[in-house]
Design brief:
Elements lengths: L13 E5 L4 E6 L9 E9 L5 E2 L2 H4 L1 E8 L7 E4 L5 E7 L7 E4 L6 E3 L4 E6 L4 E3 L5
Parallel strand pairs: 3-5, 4-6, 5-7, 6-8
Antiparallel strand pairs: 1-2, 7-10, 8-9, 10-11
Amino acid sequence: KNTTAFTPGQIPLYTAVTGTSTITSWTEYRAWVQPTVVAGKLARVIASDANITLTWSEAANDILQFTSGVSLTATRNVVVPLAARQWTVYNGTTGAQSLQFIGASGTGITVANGKRAIIYADGANVVRVTADV
């Protein structure tokens, strides 16, 4: 009904792009349909001595806890999505190696074995909010 913006005082649901006779695409704006943050904990076992990439659903958790099924031989990257997001992370891997939390690009931070830290992805880089504890 409104072709320029959402109607003030109403709850936005969708925007639709139409062709001459059909809807060609639409975007949903109902924020409560799917939460972007899960107040939960991911307990991820690193199964091989290699870098890992978290899925969006894994990275939606507030707490990221890592252990390993193998002994790590070097610092391994944990690639996180670069949306603005904060996590509490724990490196409980075997092999006394650090984990580097990094996005697909930009800079990252390293969390030592047996340590916890609060980290933040700002959309371009991963930065440390607190020191390792």
